[in-house]
Amino acid sequence: MEYEAVIGLETHVQLKTKSKMWCGCPNEFGAPPNTNVCPICLGMPGVLPVANEEALRLTVLTGYLLNCEIPRFAKFDRKNYFYPDSAKNYQVTQYDRPSTANGWLDFEFEAAPEGVARVRITRAHLEEDVGKNNHFDRHSGVDFNRGGVPLLEIVSEPDLRSSDMAYAYLRALTDILSRAGISDCDLEKGMVRCDVNVSVRPKGSNTLGAKIEIKNMNSFSGVRRALDYEIPRQLDAVRRGEVLRQETRRWDDVAGITEPMRSKEDAHDYRYFPEPDLMPFEPTEAWLEEVRARIPELPRQRKLRLIKDFELPEGDAQVLTDNLALGHFFEAAAAGYRNPKAIANWVINNLPAKLTETSTTLESVKFPAEFLRELADLVDSGKISSKMAQDVFSEMFVSGVRPSAIVEQKGLAQVSDTGAIEKLAAEVIAANPGPAGDYRAGKVAALNFLKGQVMKLSKSKANPALAGEVLERLLKD
Ligand code: ADP
Ligand code: MG
Ligand code: ZN
User: Fold this and answer.
1) Are residues 343 and 380 in the same domain?
2) 391, 410, 429 — which closes off a domain?
3) CA angle 54, 59, 60 (to 5 degrees)
4) Which terminal CB of the chain, N or C, has fewer other CB atoms within 10 Å?
5) What was the pLDDT predicted at 51?
């Protein structure tokens, strides 16, 4: 029998807010232990939380970006459990009325039909992060700086089918979140953590197999490796006739294996109940409109638009999407120009090369984007050769002087005046009777030599194509 893997991810993302979820303590990474704390995030009795409005905005913005519904009523609930790194013996989260639900994410994935896969998003709800346990030789310590940091949990439907697909999904998801300023998604700083749920079933079956949950993964390559271990393990087991049971496992990155942690509690073990200290959240249309105004152009949309509007090859569009600053520079230069590909070449190749060479950044570039359009136009209209354009570009990069002025100053303009070229061509033919005769006798290659002579005589300023045409014409007469 053929089997398939079924994977659903619960992705926790720290939101990019100035302060924590319920208090004014800074939401900041790397401060000395227990310096960003107050009675509220330390869970002292009698304190009252106040919801961070920016965290609510970022949650709803995520909902919009993931094509979710945004209910007009959401609320917070207490999830009761005790862990040493949680100062309260509960976590405030959104249980049955989350801020956003029922969406989807389309992302590029090679193995999918037409290269795009869709994963449905069950919900994205707001909760709070816990502190961090640190284990030393003889004792352990708890750092509560992270306790109460706003945390978004994005739950996917079990629509993923392979480790590579899970990896591509995580990349796309965090791309969107960082692009929209929702989270920095810095994995090194633990800003993204993921619970990986995976089961196997006969291919084509509609029922789900027993779910194994691998907890608290903090790198995408780790997720991929854990799945590359866990899927074959489950397949082996079912092929041997073993019945898998729902359980929670831990990924041991050093050994490269998953191992049992505990059999999974059911949801009711948490004794959820509505958080009595917080009002339900009922966004108004005006508030939602404000959030919608913050929806940015997403990477995939952007790439498709660049391909469509500027007729760029996919590779160019990808570079100008991945590097947003270069992309903006390109758009400023290419807007309305007849040959955007020429500008893309300058922006993708020459400009970054110069920036690297001089260790400068795009922000400190001396010339405005429009000058690139002018430069491209000088080439496209035959005023200068593309070789000259390289020199003009170098000069413009150093001085910030506009290309037409450089061309004028240096007398670089290509001679495209037919009369002037005819004069030079006639001179060359007269001085080189041998090659001229060869050409007339049918030796086509002789034309190149004569063309070279015209270029030399003109100090490389003649328009080479035109020089060729004129020579041909004169030699036929
Ligand atoms: P819980 O509330 O116990 O964490 P859920 O049923 O809400 O469990 O699912 C959590 C995650 O597990 C979701 O991402 C979901 O898509 C995924 N999931 C649920 N059942 C399965 C299964 N049998 N195989 C793989 N993933 C699953
Ligand atoms: Mg779970
Ligand atoms: Zn605090």
Assistant:
1) yes
2) 410
3) 100
4) C
5) 97
- Tell me the pLDDT tens digit for each residue of 138-190: 999 999 999 999 999 999 999 999 999 999 999 999 999 999 999 999 999 99
In the prediction, which pLDDT does 405 show? Answer: 93
CA-nearest residue, atom 1 of ligand 1:
267
**Other Cβ atoms within 10 Å of 255 Cβ, number:** 9
Residue 265 scores a pLDDT above 60: no
Please tell me the number of the ligand nearest to residue 24's CA.
3
Residues that place a CB less than 5 A from ion ligand 3: 23, 25, 38, 40-41
Band of residue 419 on the pLDDT scale cut at 50, 70, 90: confident
Given 292, 313, 345, the domain boundary residue is 292
Claim to verify: residue 261 and residue 168 sit in the same structural domain: yes
Does the Cβ of 321 fall within 6 Å of ligand 1? no
Same structural domain, 328 and 287: no
Tell me: do 315 and 256 sit in the same domain. Answer: no
What's the chain's average pLDDT?
Answer: 93
Q: Residues of the chain with pLDDT > 70: what percent?
A: 98
Provide the b/e sequence for 261-300 (b: ≥16 CB within 10 Å). Answer: eeeeeeeeebebeebeebeebebeeeebeebeeeeeebbb
Count of CB atoms within 10 A of residue 133's CB? 12
Contact yes or no for 330/320 (Cβ under 8 A): yes
Q: Which of 314, 112, 276 is nearest to 305 (CA)?
A: 314
Q: Does residue 236 carry a pLDDT above 90?
A: yes
pLDDT tens by residue, 309-363? 999 999 999 999 999 999 999 999 999 999 999 999 999 999 999 999 999 999 9
Tokens representing 103 are 């969406």
Q: Which ligand places an atom closest to the C-alpha of 47? A: 3
Q: Please tell me the number of Cα atoms within 13 Å of 78 on its side-chain side.
A: 15
265 lies in the same domain as 118:
yes
Q: Which domain holds residue 26?
A: 3-292
Q: Does the beta carbon of 9 lie inside 6 Å of ligand 1?
A: yes
Whether residue 27 has its Cβ less than 6 Å from ligand 1: no
Among residues 340, 351, 352, the alpha carbon closest in space to that of 305 is found at 340
Per the DSSP assignment, residues forming a β-bridge with 69 are: 101
Q: Could you tell me if the CB of 451 is within 6 A of ligand 1?
A: no
- 364 and 255 within one domain: no
> Residue 433's domain is classified under what CATH number?
1.10.10.410
Whether residue 163 sits in one domain with residue 243: yes
Mark whether 445 and 392 lie in a shared domain: no
